[in-house]
Amino acid sequence: MDEHKRQIINEMADDIRESLGLSVPVDVRQAVAKLQGEIRELGFKEMAYEATVHKSDEWGFRINLREGVSEVRERFSIAHELGHLFLHMGFGVNWEKWNTIEQGDNSVRTRYGATEAEYEANEFAGAFLMPQAQYLEVFDQHTDAEQRVDIKRVAQHFGVSEPAARLRGRWLGVLEWD
């Protein structure tokens, strides 16, 4: 994914979050509710993946979550599936595309794999949960005089895992790639 695509995804995430009236830490369940979507939690036997998104009817969607996932992981998973919903299924942004998506399992987008769509959904999730301007501000607040950042505090501020906060910092250019 090039920098231009990343910028478009970040702007889309910001626009959607703001249009839903959500602030940090983003309540992803409230986002789904405001979009008239549904979240259903399923057991391990029913869900091979942590999360999936489905077109449930002409105007609706459902995110299935596997039970037993940590809260921060669940939050990122929901945001990731919202990324698929907007970017790859067209919900609310491209009704022509949305109308080509079949109802049910044929519209499933999953978390796993190293496809361009997965990278894009991850970028959306990071931007949706950790807006760039706020991330940079919080990052600076938790960086000491020796330029050591307390990534745990950054992650806690946004309600995400430390790896997610670290990855966002790398993509924003404030943390080095190891």
UniProtKB/TrEMBL annotation:
<dbReference type="Pfam" id="PF06114">
    <property type="entry name" value="Peptidase_M78"/>
</dbReference>
<feature type="domain" description="IrrE N-terminal-like">
    <location>
        <begin position="60"/>
        <end position="168"/>
    </location>
</feature>
<dbReference type="InterPro" id="IPR010359">
    <property type="entry name" value="IrrE_HExxH"/>
</dbReference>
<protein>
    <recommendedName>
        <fullName>IrrE N-terminal-like domain-containing protein</fullName>
    </recommendedName>
</protein>
<dbReference type="InterPro" id="IPR052345">
    <property type="entry name" value="Rad_response_metalloprotease"/>
</dbReference>
